[in-house]
Amino acid sequence: MAKESHAPTADLGLLALRLVAGGLMAGHGAQKLFGAFGGYGVEGTGGWLESMGLKPGKTWAYLAGGGEFGSGLLTALGFLHPLGPISMFGPMIMAWATVHAGKPIWTTSGGGELPLLYLAAATATGLTGPGSYSLDEALDIEVPMPLVLLTLAGVAAGIGAGLSMRETPPASQEEAGDAGTDTELASGT
Fold it and tell me: Hey, is 39 helix, strand or coil?
């Protein structure tokens, strides 16, 4: 992607968006992978994911946590752009389709408000570029278009595989137990 020059205030706006959205996304991944920030780690997240029909749960916990952590970190740093924002679509579409589907949009109702905000931030940063205050700018990195297209195809294939492999959960989300009602897990992020 060609590097573009932005006004200084636009670059600061992109930096703020990248740091907040990417940092929080990486934090959600750290909750799933490492049990950081009050998360449940791979074991707890895996059990919760199995209750929603994603089996084996530990594998899905690694995929969800890795997708969130990696895409968030790349986005926050403005590194290897636009691979981070593109990769953010995988865990957020899966969260929307598995946790939030069929509910009113608002987070307070268990809806997809939070994944939608992450998808909007990923779209905004993906389309505008990381800005001048990024590792790509500092290191003069430009990701080749074939790698961007390969990442798009990989994320789309992963979403397709995830949705097609999902088993119908034996109970509704409300009946899945305490882990399914926890605010952090129920957000799907």
Answer: coil
pLDDT digits (tens, 9 = 90+) for 102-155: 899 999 999 999 999 999 999 999 999 999 999 999 999 999 999 999 999 999
Render pLDDT for 76-96 as a digit per residue (tens, 0 to 9). 999 999 999 999 999 999 999
**Residues 131, 5: Cα–Cα separation, whole Å:** 8
Question: Which one-letter amino acid corresponds to residue 66?
Answer: G
pTM: 0.85
Q: Which residue has the tokens 């199995």?
A: 50
> Angle 83-95/113-128 helices, nearest 10 degrees?
160
User: Tell me, what amino acid is at 29?
Assistant: G
Bond preceding residue 91 cis, omega within 30 of 0: no
The span from the CA of 107 to the CA of 161, in Å, is 26
Instruction: Give the Cα separation of 126 and 120 in Å (integer).
Output: 10
Task: Report angle CA 95, 98, 101 to the nearest 5 degrees.
Answer: 95
Entry field: residues in the chain: 189
Distance CA 57, CA 62 (A): 9
Which of 18, 21, 22, 2 lies closest to 10, judged by CA? 18
